[in-house]
Please model this.
Amino acid sequence: MAEKCNILPNNEGFYGNYGGQFLSENLKEEFKKITESFLKFKDDKGFNSELNYLLKNYAGRPSPVYFAKNLSEKYGCEIYFKREDLNHTGAHKINHSLGEALLAKRMGKTKLIAETGAGQHGVAIATAAALMGLGCDIYMGEIDIQKEKPNVDRMKILGANIISVTSGTKTLKEAVDEAFKAYSKEYETAMYAIGSAVGPHPFPMIIEHFQSVIGREARMQFMEQAGTLPDCIVACVGGGSNAIGLFSGFLEDMEVDIFGVEPLGRGEKTGENAASMTYGKDGIIHGFKCKLLQDEEGNPANAYSVASGLDYPGVGPKHCYLNEIGRAKYVVISDDEAIEAFYELSRTEGIIPALESSHAVAYGIKLAKEKKYQKILVNLSGRGDKDIQFVMSKLG
Ligand SMILES: *Cc1c(COP(=O)(O)O)cnc(C)c1O
Model:
């Protein structure tokens, strides 16, 4: 079993039944170039020494693993957090953004094109673009632009162009559609910088590679502190980049149970959640096959979560594969449970987590209450600064 868990995609980009590359002919050629460049540079000494320098001295890695003493005492077990919230720009997204920008630069591209929902990926990409002297076009739904003003302002200060997307629901899904449309006209000079472990091959593989630093560090740090591996690991799943980054370090450790936490939002009805693995059916979105939330006609359904970084109707293909072979288990946490965890971590440990990460925290606490596991490692994918205004205005 262990050797089946940490697979790479096959030549067509499939992990078992999921993934692939559903693209127009002209883009296929370009994606072949991206694949070849990635495979070359991922083992290139110069590329890696530049990336590692930036991860350490610019982004602030390694992020620590923290033993949450107060929370652990409260529940009678050991709860640890991998502190991706301490990274530059406040989340794990800087890991793949630096990697993608560096790859674009090596490929001779002069601009990054990306979509963003809540603006977290947009900020990380705009940051990497500013650092590396690349142009930057960020596509963002009109509604998200109104909702996420601080992040829009950050991107503007960093020198990015924000393109307002007014089609459909005017949120993340349409932003991806429009960004991709623009990219198909500009691919000769621009690189698409996707925001999660999704999209057509090779993007899920590229994102996993750049995020795998989380799992590699966490495994070593945990061993060093606890003297053993964790009994289980937990991460929230939107598209699945922070989760696959953590999981990749433990996939072959069969004694470690793995949990991906999806947003149940307001409930199980279509349109009220973004739990693609739990309620989705096989389908194709944005050029790849995955578990997809669908309406009655089979079109991608509207996804909802209080955490805007999680509200994508699809999910990364490697997660779909890990679910199918039973290596990882995908569970749900509601808006209310996430918000409760947001307050609980703030008040017991003095750490304000992102609402996305609060889903993982909530499930970690749930497991602690069940007393099935002694040592629990939770990925704290980002910090909650961006959510403070929303929480105070909506929830007091
Ligand atoms: C974007 C984001 C997520 C969700 O994205 P994944 O690709 O599923 O990791 C989770 N947490 C934070 C803090 C984010 O900004």
The pocket of pyridoxal-5'-phosphate is lined by residues 91, 93, 120, 196, 236-243, 309-310, 354, 356-357, 381-382 (CB under 6 Å). The longest helix spans residues 203-226. The radius of gyration is 19 Å. The mean pLDDT is 96.
